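Quick one, T. Sequence first:
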Amino acid sequence: MKEHILHLLYSNSGQVVSGTTLSEHLGISRVAVWKHVKNLKQSGWPIVSTSRGYILEHPRDLLLPFCFADRTNQIYHFTETVSTMDAAKELARKGAPHMSLVLAERQTGGRGRLSREWHSQDGGIWCTLILRPTIPFAYTYQLNFAASVALVETLRDETGIDATVKWPNDILAGRKKIAGLLSEMETHGDMLSFLNIGIGLNVNNTPPETVEDAASIRSLTGPGVSRQKLVNRFLDRFEELYNQIREIDIIAIWKAYTSTIGARVAVETHNARFEGIAVDVDPTGALIIETCDGTTKKVIYGDCFYKENNQ
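Structure tokens:
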């Protein structure tokens, strides 16, 4: 019932909808409408009550399935969940189709690479894309780079931010982190069952002060950023890249947007940390580091941080 109310308010974007109109459409009393609206407001939905009825503020910021006309059956929305990665894993195991997207208004246990905590308050885009690739298993890493490219191009086109990618898959504005990506896969024998790519994008939220070097789109460009438009644009662009992945050199495209190559970095893996100059990203997506003693290291998985003298 609550989703029906949101749908009706959304369909009348920016216009007041009377309690009588909602009552007639839903077949419930005006008192019942009032109670449902009250619960929605308490849950954080931006509904304003007026003497003439109800109005939904910022309708283009809504991320419910009916907001994505061509993808309604592929959108799974949660007001709150522990992690969209966890929710997506369960949905994928139950047969959720390729290009399904799991969205949450907030996460209570969001995580980044190397199990770091990811703060996920209202106003951001916290989502996981479920993929069932038909490309050879050995090349699935390319889809992580495709997601980074699709996201950085979306941000550049829709917000005007001069966003860059930092290996392996952070999105930066200058030296401020505005997004991070994380992937997980599950196999059955030699076959890939699914690949899930999680995305945390700071949009209209305010990252905690305890998180250094983090920013939101709103803090960089001002209010009025449509999460709905960003999600739609990202999905369109990613799907284009996915369908061309056998023909294009996605690593080369990624390199055109990176601020990592040429930077002095510190690299952390599960059991090591070292510093050097990032000299390249090879065709397999590995980061090539030239350390202070002149040796070259190839990093397949880990995290990297820019050193102060690069700023």
